[in-house]
Write a structure and sequence with these properties.
two-stranded antiparallel ribbon, 41% helix
Amino acid sequence: MSVRLGALVLPESAGPRAAARWRQVEQLGFDHAWTLDHLSWRTLRGAPWFDAMTTLTTAAAATSTLRLGTLVASPNFRHPVLTAAQAMALDHASGGRFVLGVGAGAAGPDDNALGGDPLSPARRAERFAEFVAVADRVLRERPCTVTGTWYSAVDVHLAPGCLQRPRTPFAVAAAGPKGMRVAVEFADTWVTIGATDTPGGLPEQAAFDRLRRQLDRLDDLCAEAGRDPAGLARLVNLSRVAEHPYSSAQRLVDLVGRCAELGFTDVVLAWPRAHGVFQGDQDAFERAVGAVREYFVTPA
């Protein structure tokens, strides 16, 4: 049984301090690392918070083996053409290690930041599907012209294109059937946090039951679309599923094992913070991560 282990690092630092943190992630042996893409986030609204793409440029310069990505970029304040251009640049900056993680975006400050009326869940899903489709075309086609309901691209040339071909991989976060169909069509990796309505709020067994149902739905949608499900990686953000996941090394080993048994290929763990959200003990975190790496083969 194998699983790749990833770290989620919040974009709270810049400059040398941020570079040192990303190097530390790599030195601990993580396979991939991610940062959130928001203008502000939950209880940290008003606290130091930096742009995800710029943060990942620092990460790319500070590391050499980590795959790096957004968890996740959304249409709330992004346009797919600019997002695609940034993805291409990051793919080059990282030497072909970038993954564009995308999601539909939630209601709240990010959604309201550019003005406009709130969207219904159905309209949000429609916008997301078009966002991913346009980003995909812009990264694959030169020149690219596409006219949609939400977005247009007119004679766009993204040269020289991504190092990874035909484009940088997409990691699509989705929990409902509409979003999961987008993942089946476009994604290299499907991403979930389990209960999107109450992240981290379900009892542990109920949270894992939710994950199992989502995985079953993903397999059904792959069959419906004629896609081999084995070609779609599955990533879970464990820190939004289980409380205190590294309270002991054995607990983290057991949790990652449960994820692998369900069919997840990748597990992400939030980097410990001194206080507030994702608060945790750094030494306990490092011991637990080391134990997981001893138990599981993590291919590069």
